[in-house]
Specification:
Arc Repressor Mutant, subunit A, 4-stranded antiparallel sheet, alpha+beta, 4 strands, 2 domains
């Protein structure tokens, strides 16, 4: 989908604060509220906007342990592995990647014991050849928005 300048400006406003009303966005951009509404509706339909979320601090809601698990998999069982991974509590992201690993798994849990349980569940999936767990010590940068070009 080709985004025009108005679409891009609307997306910038919504990424910075998804709670902004269409009226406020329209006023800032010098267009009607209806125009903003129709553009946002179109951006949702086209899949440019995937949803509107509240971003929580995992530490403050009882999920202070974060790790990434690199996973090596049997290619013939990879799709079933991905399905089983998505069903594990504590798994918040699964990324199909290139390189040494087949997938990278983002895990957020409440304790080291829970992390151990997740690692054990991942390792028990048929077709998982090997895992390497990397515990996150600090998050130095994590941007949830993307640059709009």
């Amino acid at each position: 989908m080709n985004l025009n300048d108005l679409d891009k400006k609307i997306l910038i406003f919504l990424q910075n604060d998804a709670r902004l009303s269409f009226v406020k966005i329209a006023k800032q951009l010098g267009v009607s509220e209806g125009t903003v509404h129709l553009r946002v509706k179109k951006l949702i339909k086209e899949g440019v906007i995937k949803g509107f979320y509240t971003v929580l601090d995992p530490d403050k809601i009882g999920l202070p342990i974060r790790a990434f698990i690199g996973l090596q998999a049997d290619p013939s069982l990879y799709e079933s592995i991905l399905k089983k991974l998505s069903e594990i509590d504590g798994v918040y992201g699964i990324y199909d990647i290139t390189g040494e690993f087949s997938a990278l798994i983002d895990v957020k849990v409440g304790s080291k014991k829970e992390l151990t349980e997740v690692i054990d569940q991942v390792g028990a999936i048929p077709g998982v050849k090997n895992t390497v767990t990397m515990l996150v010590l600090r998050v130095l940068k994590e941007e949830l928005g993307v640059a709009i070009r």
